[in-house]
């Protein structure tokens, strides 16, 4: 590992010296695309000591909002992650997340705070295809779609040379989690949000230390409100008490199980059904029936008798009648009475947010009012 401290970064294959970035847009080539310009402008602000930054929320559970974060908050988050994974001078970081959102932006801050060598590529399904085959990295963060594509492209040996790999921004499907068991490098699912300056807890996905539970990072104060939703207070929240909409179950003061979003609870006949629990069963059933490449989610639909009925939304063309019957039979066998989807609605394509997350509400609104396929 090189111990030479970096004085430049690589962005889409081109080298930019920090001294020039500090003068951006002066001393920087004028043929940058829009994304490159935004990345370098943030780097300029950080390198020049800016104290406040505007970050956009992803919009996955509501309208995107602009959140103002202090340098202290971002640096505290970056150094907490750096300490946890022992990242430091000479380590090499790959940034392939969208730097306009907290996941990608915080990778930049970690590199600057820990004096790591920084390689940035625009978001792409297989980011390792955009860098030389000889390029090696110690740390990277992916969304599940990218991590799956990297594995399918045969890049596992390159991943195994990393100290740690983060994955977040969307649900990790069961099939991907199984595929990760072949990796030697530790892979962690992150829990966090824009308002907490990225992750505040991690769940190991592979290896002997794999766990279904999240472990809260040191120095983060957590608790629960009356709904059973997680609360957070720490330096990364600017010591402000934040209440989330994430229902959790604590095993101890530092370990919790994520149950699902409070706003994704379906009230069916007076019984509260957590959509994410049903989605997990639906995902496994689709996989067992050989229905691959189909995204799916569960939501409540108005029902005159139940108030809301549990409904499955499946992306793509309707399944053949026999296969749909098999799917509903599996769900009936594996779910309680009120958890079973009462029908399936097919959507040609799910809507997503600007950050690439599934937008459930927009997807539901985009569909015609035709009734779901009923049992």
Tell me about this structure:
The protein is α/β, with parallel strands linked by helices and 375 residues long. It has 10 helices and 21 strands. The strands form 4 sheets. The chain has a 13-stranded mixed beta sheet. A hairpin with an 8-residue loop joins β13 and β14. α3 crosses α4 and α8 packs across α9. It is globular, with a radius of gyration of 22 Å.
Note the topology.
Blueprint: E1 8-11, E2 14-17, H1 18-21, H2 34-47, E3 52-56, E4 66-70, H3 71-85, E5 92-95, H4 102-114, E6 117-120, E7 139-142, H5 144-152, H6 156-159, E8 164-167, H7 174-179, E9 187-193, E10 198-204, E11 214-216, E12 221-224, E13 229-233, E14 242-252, E15 255-261, E16 265-268, E17 271-274, H8 275-288, E18 296-303, E19 307-315, H9 321-334, E20 343-347, H10 360-366, E21 373-374
Parallel strand pairs: 1-6, 5-6, 5-7, 7-8, 8-9, 19-20
Antiparallel strand pairs: 1-2, 3-4, 9-10, 10-11, 11-15, 12-13, 13-14, 14-15, 16-17, 18-19, 20-21
Helix pairs in contact: 2-4, 3-4, 8-9
Radius of gyration: 22 Å
Q: What global shape is seen?
A: globular
Strand order within the widest sheet? 2-1-6-5-7-8-9-10-11-15-14-13-12
Helix content: 25-40%
Give the biggest beta sheet. 13 strands, mixed
Structural class: alpha/beta
How many strands in all?
21
Counted by DSSP, the helix tally is 10
The percent range for strand residues is: 25-35%
Which blocks of ≥5 consecutive residues have pLDDT under 50? none
Gap from first CA to last CA? 60 Å
The pLDDT mean sits at 93
